Amino acid sequence: MLASVLLQLTPLRANLTAERADLRRAVAQQLRAYREGLSVLPRPQTIPLTYQVWRLQYGQSAAQVLSSEEAITDFFQRDGIDGRLLILGDPGMGKTHTLLAMGEHLLRRNAAEGPVPVLVDLSAWDGENLDAWLVAYLWEVYRLCQPVATLWLQSAQLTLLLDGFDHLPPAQQRACAKEINTLLRSNAEQTALLCCRRQVIETSGISFDDYFNGGLYLRPLPAQQVKDYLLSQGCDDLWPQVKATKALQPLGRFPLYLTLMVALAPVLGTDASAITGKEALVQTFLNDRLDHSPQPASAEERSTLRWLATQMAGRPRSLRIDHLRPTWLPEPQRLMYRGLLALAFVLIFTLVGGNPGVGLAWGLVFSQLDLEAFPYTHLSLALASWRSLTGLALVSTLPALGLGVGVGGFGALLLGRFNLGLPAFGWGGLVGAVLGWSLGLGIGLWGGLPRGIQIRHHPNQDLRMALRNGAILFGLLALVLALVLVVPAVVRGQPPFTLLTLPRLRVVIAALLSAYLWLSFALQQMTVRAMLSRAPSRLPWAVDAWLQRWAQRQVLVKGSGDYGFAHDLVRDALAKD
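-> structure tokens emitted (577 positions)
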């Protein structure tokens, strides 16, 4: 509550309407990107789904059946449900599709007022307190700053679209369910949609009865709908096989497996006898995509895909290229990572600064600091908004200039009687400028900046934005340093570089360059990617183009600037390949 009170006393209060509009725009773009990436077909046709209403005691179904996205959105908002609903179904039945569709409908309905739907991937949850985790998650995904995120969660201004619960291990599912129930119990106005497999509710002992007011169960497709869909896709030869084959009949009633059959229609031809179950169907689809001409997957590419599938089995479902961290490295290589990072500092200071000793000292310190542990600092530099960057430039440059002149002037006043006024002003000003810049930047980045809401549109967006913004901020710092080190000498009629001799200038440039590459996370990224390009991962250096290639073949799906496997079943099949 303290954050809410403080927020009302700041200039940020007047911007809440603009923040809301920015968030709605970002969520709309995100939902559209994810829906477009869901299907394995190049030109997907929507498969209408039907939903059976479930009572509070799950396992008892009511007679009511809903058959449109508008109807289930109405049901979600009706009295008695009050915006707390479970979406239940078997794997491949369309739970995520339903969640995204409802998010879009809610976004259109709540244009003027009402909670803004936000997509939350619970597969990224790692056991933290859910309230605190949600605040950090909203910053990472939407750049919603900490004060606003805290306020809106406390005042139930967000509808949580919770996906990825099934991806968690059973023990984590129970812990996560407890956190979700605690969140809903502590805030009676909080609205939420949760995707969950029906079997989890029926067999795990997990209960949402007390805090979710209903459920929708996705019913299998009827035979006539399966037939109509296959014929509409030009798969006339496939329908008789589905109708006559015991293995294909039940699979065709699942939207995922039905679209896989359509994608494989040219391969299956008039004989689908090899498809003996869902595993065989997924494996046939995978083999077709891996062996697809004109560029079938090499043995090395298969190995890399298998490694990626194994890695992502225990990680969040979405892979963001510019968020690859040392934790992706095998345990024995993480010490080597720190050594290579320290070596990079030594090389910069040797080649640019001509002083490897200073580089070694910097490397030993900065290689031990994990910038990714401070997401607000790390990601604040990745802002795409020029408005936010301007604010960040002001809060860092003005203190740098003020402290630089102030500390330099104080030093000159103390040491001027000893004829050391110029060096005291210059080097004291340098210390003051760096200190002021660091303090201003740290305060500006604490909790994230307002009016910086955005989503990723490109896989390397965060890294590119951090490099761009870092170059501007460090460029302004360099100007302040030039003012305190060069201008005083010129004013006194001495050569401009009286204090900043060439060796010193080289060290200052090396320090600025290495700090810039480290703070923008570029140095860490280059080191991690270089190490991942070697065995056993062999992740290509041009990883974006490589991932895009497999997204075009529907092995992966591209979302909002990230990648994931087309389905958990595809990932599991690859891991066993």
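The radius of gyration is 28 Å.
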